[in-house]
Amino acid sequence: MTVRPADYCPNCGTATTTREVEGRERRYCETCERPVFHNPTPTAAAAVVDGDSILLVERAVPPGVGEWTVPGGHLEADEQPAVAAARELEEETGVRADPAALELVGAELLAPFGDKHAVSMAYAVPVDDTEGTPEAGTDAAAVRFFSREELDADAHAFRPHVPGRFERVLDAL
Question: Whole-number mean pLDDT of the chain?
C-alpha cells in the first residue's frame, strides 16, 4: 500500500506495471504477484466554534497555499484521530483543546490534490472548551474566525471541502 501511485513495489523494488485487479486498473508487481494499492492518507481536523463562526487557517504550505481551511493534518502512526486533531489545532493556531472535548462531525474523502488523496475526520469543539489565543503557527500564514456570511460572500479562497464542513460543524454543536 502506498499513498501515491507506486512506480516501484514497496516490498521488492521491482518496477510496477498496470493490471486490472478486482475490476479496477491498479499498479501491480510481477515479482511479488500482487497489486500495490494506492490508499488515501488519514487526516484529522478540529473546528473551533464561536457562535456562528469557525476558526480557520490560511495555508502557508502546499497543498492549497493561500486557501483557508479548518486546522488539521496527518495522523502519526500511533495517534488516535481526536488526539491528532487537537495536536494539529494547537500547532497551527496556538489554541489548545482536550481531545475528549472534541465531537466527531464526520469523515470524508477530500478532493485530490494531484495524485494525493486524503480521508479527513472532522471534529468540532466550542470555543469555551479551548484555551489560548489564536495565532498563526506551523503551516499557517494567518488564523481568524469566519462567519457564515463571510463564507457565503466568497471574498476569500477556501479549500473545496470547507463550505460543506462549515455547515456540518455548526449543525453538530
Answer: 91
